[in-house]
Amino acid sequence: MKIRTWKRMAGQGFRSLFRNRVMSLASISAIAAALFVLGLVMAVVMNFNNIIAGLESKVEITIFLKTDTHSSDIKRMEQQIQSWEGISEWEYISKDEALETWREEWGDMAYLLDGYNSENNPLPDSFHIKVQKPEFVESVVEKASKFAAVEKVQYSKDVVDSIASIASTTRFFGMIIVVVLIIMAMIIIHNTIRISVYSRRREVNIMKYIGATDWYIRWPFLIEGMALGLIGAAISGGLTAGVYSLLLKRISSSPMQGNLLSQFQLLPLDSILYPIVGLFIMVGSAVGIAASLLSISKHLKV
Amino acid sequence: MIQFINVSKVYDNGLQALNNVNISVESGEFVFIVGASGAGKSTLVKLLLKEIEPTEGKIIVNDVDLSRMKRKEIPFYRRGIGVVFQDFRLLPTKTVYENVAFAMEIVEASRKEIRRQVPAVLGMVGLASKANAYPSQLSGGEQQRTALARALVNNPSILIADEPTGNLDAATAAEIMKIINMINHRGTTVIMATHARDIVNSMKKRVITFRKGIVVSDKEKGEYFCED
Fold it and tell me: Is the residue at B200 inside a domain?
């Protein structure tokens, strides 16, 4: 079709959009809500994946010892650890040192820890081991677990696994909500297009007699549906960006230091926004087009 | 040019609208289709526009068998046929000019062609001075002339008029008939379904009379007879 024809059809589509203002608004809100939830789920999952990737590249193992482990036992363990293959660095941190580090990390908030002293220190003694390559992690963990005095061996895989499971749960339930919202949006857009078809039925009837092709008649309605989806995408894109940058500000100013996750920054806005907005545009226009196609096939007799 | 061969039409509700109809219309002819309401006139018009399919028989227009026409070809077939109706069917939000230009936009005519052709056709039907009026500002006759202009603007070879004077007084109807006659003289085949006895009798054209879906008479320079 000629460019002039496309312009004409786009004009018709947008005029319909304004003519059915109320329904258009309902459609746009519905699709924006669905996409916004999709955006939040994506932002969370992307951040989890980023943390996982960061953790997997770490080659640190922490061995927590049982309370009241005798210093001679600790000496013996030190000697053994030195002999292990692939160790690049290791360090013994006593529970007193650990408490001190904790105090330093909390800075201004350290007064919260004033109740603890060497008598009632809840932290265990520990070894912090770095290996040269991730491949050495498994064997070090295996050997460390054999020490009688070991309470727990913590290494990235545990954290990775639990974060991955949180991420997949988030994705699963998030997607259910998104699918439900998208279905609702489709129903509303479907109805909007139906009303638009109804209000233009005379025109459509005349167009048929004059010899308009089926697609000449259908395109304006498809354009209308697509426009609803895209406007919804733009709104939810703006909302997602706003909420996420607010979150970034809050988190960067909060005192959650010392937490394992604090070593990982939230992804910057840019790196989550581009893929999310790209997805919004695709999903938004796809939902709009699909809903208007359904409506057209049911209500537009060409 | 237009041939109905053993055409019957039974609607889904069991109504037999046409029963074994055989008609042949030559290119350039002027034919009245007359009969009481329900005699089958509208069905004939719908069949010609390929809005509905015959239950039996064949319809051939310009050497094309309509039953073999693909769905995609229907719009292009309709572009060769101009139609006017009793109720005009103009778009109330468009001016006279825009209503006519609309028909050319649909067939993707260039802006230049539209600017040349629309005023010419409006002149032909005597509406040049009303180009910027809206349908609601026009008399019935003027509205039907707008509809005629729209039907003719793409130069169809056939004009189908379904009760074109049904909503008009006698004097206005006569004016419309003058225009339709003129169009016929320019070589367009005219098929006009009507109830209007006076018009049919004054025109001295071929008249095909239907009763209950059957062709009961088909006469050159015929008269309207119909016991309704």
Answer: yes
